[in-house]
Amino acid sequence: MRFTFITLFKNIVECYFEDSILNRAIKNGLISIDFVNPRDYTKDKHKKVDSTKIGGGAGMLMTPQPLIDAIRDIKGKDSWVIFLTPAAKRFNQKDAKRLSLKKHIIFVSGRYEGVDERVIEKEADEVFSIGDFILTGGELASLCMCDAIARNIDGVLGNPFSLEEESFEDGLLEAPAFTKPNIFEGSFVPSEFLKGNHSKISALKTEMAIYRTKYYRPDLKDKI
Ligand code: SAM
Question: Residue 39 domain-assigned?
Fold first, then answer.
């Protein structure tokens, strides 16, 4: 899958792909990334890409022309254009799985106080927030989405079964997990985990997942 980042700050995004799983995915030809800077498209003689808000209000907005020209220049028939903004529905794991089947995703990162709404109206296939807080720009948000999407692409994770038991798979948070040693600073792993009875371990994990979900995420109550 191809990911294009439309951003004024390529360096913020690019370094994320220099290590670990997504770096290996690039080397293995499973994903590719590229960057487009809206400043390269601006027709403003001072190379500006932002302006004051019409109607008043603090801060600057990204102007329509550079963004629209950049998007239309790179968009193909298989492209899916995603805008990042806090003023949208929240991205979740179901979205990540669904979007992992796309061929080309274009992430449009806002800066300043965001993007002129007409750009979103004209060009967005989808609009996402990554949570109820405000970042300084869309780069981190697009990286979060890209990472969550990419790890659902066949072959990206070394062990595909890793995806099966994760939080949100069955609507619950994942149960607590443990590794060696069996006793650490006087804390024991649950004894059932050491006995090798997989159906009992599985039942215990489900019970713990339900308790954890009730405690941390009562909003997921339908699944509980
Ligand atoms: N004025 C905007 C508002 O109140 O909704 C916030 C603009 S924010 C300072 C600048 C850019 O950061 C946004 O255009 C968006 O691309 C990105 N951003 C900030 N928080 C985000 C979030 N929670 N999810 C996705 N993108 C976010």
Answer: yes
Mean pLDDT of 73-82: 98
* Percentage of residues of the chain with pLDDT beyond 90: 93
Verify that 105 and 191 share a domain, yes or no.
no
Q: Are residues 78 and 23 in the same domain?
A: yes
Any domain includes 78: yes
Per-residue 3-state assignment (H helix, E strand, C coil) for the chain: CEEEEECCCHHHHHHHHHCHHHHHHHHCCCCEEEEECHHHHCCCCCCCCEEECCCCCCCEEECHHHHHHHHHHHCCCCEEEEEEEEEEEECCHHHHHHHCCCCEEEEECCCCCCECHHHHHHHCCEEEECCCCCCCCCHHHHHHHHHHHHCCCCCCCCCHHHHCCCCCCCCCCCCCCCCCCCEECCEECCHHHHCCCHHHHHHHHHHHHHHHHHHHCHHHCCCC
Residue 211: inside a domain, yes or no? Answer: yes
| Residue 160: per-residue pLDDT | 84
Indicate if the pLDDT at residue 223 is higher than 70.
Answer: no
25 lines ligand 1 (CB under 6 A): no
pLDDT at 222 over 90: no
C-beta 85 within 6 A of ligand 1 = yes
